[in-house]
C-alpha cells in the first residue's frame, strides 16, 4: 500500500460527488469522476505520448499548436497502426515479399491521390507563399512515388495488371479527394466558393486530412529506424525505413504541420472542429490501410488471436496501475470528510470515531511515517551488492524486508483507529465514481466480450478494502473481474477499523499469483495457458517476473531501480515485440513467451496494451 495523505485535494470548490446517508455531508474530491460525460484521463496524452518514444514527441514549442494537439489526441490510432501485424513484420524484416509488393502497389495508388489533393489545395490557397509551400509538399510526394517505382522495378511488378485497388485504399483516396474538392460537411459546394477566404478554408481542410499521414509515417520511420541493427545491412526494407526516418521526410512532415497551423489560425471554433474530424478520420483510415494488407505468415500480434486455443490468465495490480491515485488516499478522504466535527456530533454513533481534526493529524503522521520508512527500506535493499545477471532468488530475499515493512505499516493503521466508522455505502459509491486510467476498462471489457477466448481476469491488490475495487469495476461493466485484496470488517455496514489481511506484501502477491495459476492447471491438465501480469510498483515485481509476459505501465522509479539492481531488464514493448517477431515461426505459439526470463516490457498507457493484446477493433 503506497500510503498517500489526501487533505490537499479536499476543498469546498471541487466537484461534489456523493453524499453520506448518515451525515448528509458532501464528499468532494478530484479522486472521483463526475456523472457528466467529461472524463478526466489519469495519464495525460502528452505524457503518454512522450513516454512511448522520443519520436512520438512533436517538435519543440509546437505542443500548443493545432497539429500537435491533434496528434496527441488521436495517439490511440497511431498505436493501432504501429502494432498492426503488417507494421511489426516490416520492422522485424521478415515480412513476406509478396505482402510488401501488395502494400507498395496500394501505396502508389494512394500517393497519386495524395499528390492530386495537394494540387487542388494549391489552387484554393489565396496566399502565394502558401501556394508555393503546398507545391513543395507535392514535390516531396512525387519523390516518394519515385522511391516506390524503384521498388516496383526491383521486383518486376506491373501494378496496373497485377494489383487492383483494395477497399481500404479506395476509401482513403476517395476521402482525400472529396476533401480537397471542397466536399466537406459545413463547407459550400464546389463551384460556389465565392471568396478567397472560403477557398482557403478548403486548403486548410485538405491539410487537415493529409497531415496525420505525414506525421504517422515520420513516426513509424523513426521507430523502425531506431530498431535497425547497424551491423545488419541485409534488412530487406532498410531503404523504406531510411526514407521515412530521414531528416528530409521529417522536415516535410513538420512543414505540413506548420502550414496547417498557419491556415487554421483565423478559423472559427466550428471550422476547427471540422479539421479535427478530418484529422481523426484520416488516422482511422490509416489504421484500416495497414490492417488491410494481406499477411500469409504467423505474427506475434495481436496476442489474443495467436492464443485463442490457450487459456489466457490476465492479472493486474489496482492502485496506480488501474487508478489515478492510491486507494489509501480515497479511503482516508472518506474517513476525514465523514468524521464527526465535534463532541456533540460524535455522541450516539454506533462506533466511536476520532474527531475530523484529530483524524487529519493522524493520517498526516501515518503518511509521513510510511514515506520515510519506505524510502529507508528501498535504500537498504539497494545497498546490497548489485547483481551482474538476473537474480530472482536474491530479489525474493530482498523483498522479504519490504514485506515486513508493509505489514508493520498496516499494523500502525489498524491500531490508530483511522479506519473505524466508514459506511459501506460510502465506500461503494466512491468506487463507482473512481477515476481509472484511460483505456483500462476498455481493455477489460474487450477481453471479457471477445468470443471464443478462454480468459480470466484477476486483480491482485494491497488495497485495504476489496469492496472499493469491486464497485469500481462493476460501474465499468466488468464485474467478472476476480478481486484478490484485503477486506474491511463491518458491523451493520459500518467498518470496525480491523482489516482481514489477505494481500499485504510482494510475497503475498506472488503466493496468490502462483496459487491461481496452479488451480488453473489442476482444473485442466491437458490445456496450455498463457499468463500476463500488468503492474507499476516494486510490490508487483515478483508477479511481473513470474508471468509469461510482464507489462510495466507508467512505472515508479523505485521499481526500475530495484529491478535493475537484481538484473531485471526493462524493454519497451514494441521493441520487444519486433525482436520476438524476428524469431517467430509456424511452430511457435505460447512458447514464444516464458516467465522468469528477467525481462519486463514497458508501455506508456493502457492504449498500448490494447493495441498489443487485442489489436484493432
Description:
With 617 residues, the protein is α/β, with parallel strands linked by helices. Helices cover 55% and strands 10% of the residues. The chain contains 25 helices and twelve strands. The protein has helices spanning 45-52, 66-73, 75-82, 85-92, 97-124, 128-154, 159-162, 167-180, 196-227, 238-245, 247-264, 269-291, 303-306, 327-338, 343-346, 356-382, 392-416, 424-432, 440-449, 466-475, 506-523, 541-546, 557-565, 573-583, 606-613, and strands spanning 16-19, 26-28, 311-316, 420-423, 454-460, 482-484, 487-491, 494-500, 529-535, 549-553, 569-572, 599-603. The strands form three sheets. It has a seven-stranded parallel sheet, with helices on both faces. A three-stranded antiparallel sheet has the order 4-8-7. It has a two-stranded antiparallel ribbon with strand order 1-2. A hairpin with a 6-residue loop joins strand 1 (16-19) and strand 2. Helix 5 (97-124) packs antiparallel against helix 9 (196-227). The longest helix has 32 residues, at 196-227. The chain is globular, with a radius of gyration of 28 Å. The two termini are 35 Å apart. 46% of the residues are buried. The model is unreliable at 7-57 (pLDDT under 50).
Question: How do the helices and strands line up, and which of them pair or pack?
Answer:
Layout: E1 16-19, E2 26-28, H1 45-52, H2 66-73, H3 75-82, H4 85-92, H5 97-124, H6 128-154, H7 159-162, H8 167-180, H9 196-227, H10 238-245, H11 247-264, H12 269-291, H13 303-306, E3 311-316, H14 327-338, H15 343-346, H16 356-382, H17 392-416, E4 420-423, H18 424-432, H19 440-449, E5 454-460, H20 466-475, E6 482-484, E7 487-491, E8 494-500, H21 506-523, E9 529-535, H22 541-546, E10 549-553, H23 557-565, E11 569-572, H24 573-583, E12 599-603, H25 606-613
Parallel strand pairs: 3-5, 3-9, 5-6, 9-10, 10-12, 11-12
Antiparallel strand pairs: 1-2, 4-8, 7-8
Helix pairs in contact: 3-12, 4-24, 5-6, 5-8, 5-9, 6-11, 8-9, 8-12, 9-10, 9-11, 9-12, 14-16, 16-17, 18-20
